[in-house]
Amino acid sequence: MNRRLIKTLVGAAIFAAFAGGVSAQDSKVADELAKYREALADGNPADLLEVKGEGLWSEKRGPKNASLEQCDLGQGPGKLEGAYAALPKYFKDTNKVMDVESRLVHCMVTLQGFTQAEVTKQWFSRPGKESDIEALVTFIGAKSNGMKINVPATHPEEAKMAKMGEYIFYRRSGPQDFSCSICHGQEGKRIRLQDLGNLTTKDGAGTAMKTWPSYRVSQGAVWTMQRRLIDCMRQARWPEPNYLADSIVALETFLQKNATGTVMETPGIKR
Amino acid sequence: MNFKFGLFFGLTVIFAGQALADKPVEAPGGKFAKEAEQMFRTSFRADNPKYWMTRLEQDETMKTCLQFRDNPPRKVGEKLEKLNAATIRYPVDGKLIGDWKEGEKLAAVGTGGHIGFIQPDPAGRVRGGNCYACHELAKKEIAYGTIGPSLREFGKIRGKDEDTIKYVYDKIYNSNAFTACTNMPRFGLHSWLTPEQITHIVAFLIDPESPVNKD
């Protein structure tokens, strides 16, 4: 928490330094800065969501009136420590490589008896409409804090998924000729003022992946990795993928594999 | 280690390094590339209108760039550059340099063309060149990206002769006519910008009165 706060302060200071000279965007930047400060005043707003997620995890809910405490996120039923850091992962019971969100939804359907449509209706929050998934993922993510990302993709299905993610990462299309690699394939580049790391290296992928899920100040909400990647596809000017689509899980597998060995620091706080 | 051996050893390392660099890199996805394409195509919401889905089509340039991770061998690159050069169209009046003030506005606009159900651009939203996303241009705009080289004082440095004007027009119309698989979009080819809009941006880069070249 302390380290996180210091880092955020440094981030805000850098942000302020940049903001100093921006003319046309002065008011917008000042706006964002104010939000940053607000966010800092009482720590990371994601911490509150984490507490909410913890409550949702153990609460008996759904047609089966069951909690999620028997949910197997890959480390065995109910075992949360390090689970996020080791996802996506191959699951025998579904014969699929699943990320934290698809596995969580699977548990809500099988253990609590919700339908998939019910559970995923509010997969991300909008002003005034909170998302249970966001809260639960924030809670699950925090249980990997301080642990190393561990997705070596040794199972053949995982190795295949990582390869397919690599394919999508370099695939160019759309009216701007974009691919993930255009924006995230080189060291030390920025788009406008946003730093973009090289997500194909351990360092670049690690710096990015260790902080998710993250509170996004500009959005006033915690974003999950699915939310992040679906928005990057929007920025690429592509159509909208399905929530929990295999292509997103494949990209996550590729990125987590690249980031493997990096110590998690989540929930993060971002622009 | 004597001098001769040292020299030999050094050269060997250099040659070995080059040989390594020349070794073709595996295409992304390896043996799963076909399956990955299939998976990608079928992972979009069923209610995306058809004309949105066409944005996933790849022309030969896109396919080739993917295969070589945007780093095609020179021979392949040259072929793509020829192919792309042949697509360039000019304004009907043949004038390639327009109004830098219009160009200044277009260079700054980063919106337009976003689709999907979460946060699409409203219909009719102006599409810009978004040059600042990747390039430094006018000095006063410090919120610029660095994916492309700085274009500050472009006209001052490169001149304003006909060839330079044509080069800039062509580059914006179809960036791949010069550098196959560059990160820069092909604004004219995709009709993202009209030929007239491109002439305004050319003026923004070249005109001595433009803030790119002044102060």
Notes on the structure:
The complex is a heterodimer of chains A (271) and B (215). Chain A is globular, with a radius of gyration of 18 Å. In chain A, helix 9 packs across helix 11 and helix 10 crosses helix 11. Chain A has 271 residues and is mostly helical. A three-stranded mixed β-sheet of chain A has the order 6-5-7. In chain A, strands 1-2 form a two-stranded antiparallel ribbon. In chain A, strands 3-4 form a two-stranded antiparallel sheet. In chain A, a hairpin with a 4-residue loop joins strand 5 and strand 6. Chain A folds into three domains: 40 residues; 97 residues, Cytochrome c-like domain (Cytochrome Bc1 Complex, Chain D, domain 2, Orthogonal Bundle), CATH 1.10.760; 115 residues, Orthogonal Bundle (Cytochrome Bc1 Complex, Chain D, domain 2). The two termini of chain A are 18 Å apart. Chain A contains eleven helices and seven strands. The N terminus of chain A is likely disordered. By secondary structure, chain B is mostly helical. Chain B folds into two domains: 84 residues, no CATH class; 114 residues, Cytochrome Bc1 Complex, Chain D, domain 2, CATH 1.10.760.10. Helix content of chain B is 42%, strand content 0%. Chain B has nine helices and no strands. The N terminus of chain B is likely disordered. Chains A and B meet through helix 7, helix 8, strand 3, helix 10 and helix 11 of A and helix 2 and helix 4 of B.
